[in-house]
Specification:
Layout lengths: L2 H14 L6 H12 L4 H18 L2 H10 L5 H13 L2 H9 L17 H4 L1 H10 L4 H6 L24 H7 L1 H7 L1
Helix pairs in contact: 1-2, 2-5, 2-8, 3-5, 3-8, 10-11
């Protein structure tokens, strides 16, 4: 599945979700859409999600997640990326270009995470077949129920997320909104 096709599915899910800003509702809607697809297409959805996750896996974005969610573990960052993808293509692309831009997004502090989005394709596959495909396990690093990034890409030079001065320098808008 091409990335643009994946984004079309996300937008369709956002339109049919009760609250398009709620990534959990979007994930549930997306799962229902995916369940209408053939099994190979569902694997394509999983692959597209993994590609988007890998592209978003940066220290700059992780720092933004840290500010918004008042801390962010490695699992929490995967959940943050799930939330971000659930916000749609425009928000995702703007955040990757400038993580501080996320101050423009309507989200409550400590609410920018969506573990449900990580498992949409695998859960749809399981509901349709009763099990997980072996090759999807390989795609996800052996973790069949979530599509976290294994191994993670290099993050680059690390700084102290608990250094308020440094975080305010890097994320002035986010810090003003959330700190």
């Amino acid at each position: 599945m091409k990335i643009n096709e994946y984004w079309e599915l996300v937008e369709k899910a956002r339109k049919s979700a009760d609250d398009p800003a709620d990534a959990h509702a979007v994930a549930e809607s997306l799962k229902e859409i995916i369940k209408t697809m053939d099994l190979e297409s569902i694997k394509g959805v999983a692959n597209a999600y993994t590609q988007l996750t890998r592209a978003a896996y940066s220290l700059q974005l992780w720092g933004a997640a840290y500010v918004i969610n008042d801390g962010c573990s490695d699992d929490g960052f995967d959940d943050f990326i799930g939330w971000l993808i659930g916000q749609g293509k425009k928000t995702y692309e703007m955040a990757l270009a400038d993580p501080d831009w996320l101050a423009e997004v309507e989200v409550e502090a400590d609410d920018a995470y969506c573990e449900d989005m990580l498992a949409v394709a695998t859960q749809a596959y399981k509901e349709l077949t009763g099990g997980y495909p072996t090759d999807l396990k390989e795609l996800t690093g052996g973790y069949p129920t979530d599509l976290t990034v294994f191994p993670p890409p290099e993050l680059g030079p690390i700084w102290d997320f608990d250094d308020d001065k440094e975080m305010r320098r890097r994320y002035p808008k986010l810090c003003k909104k959330f700190m």
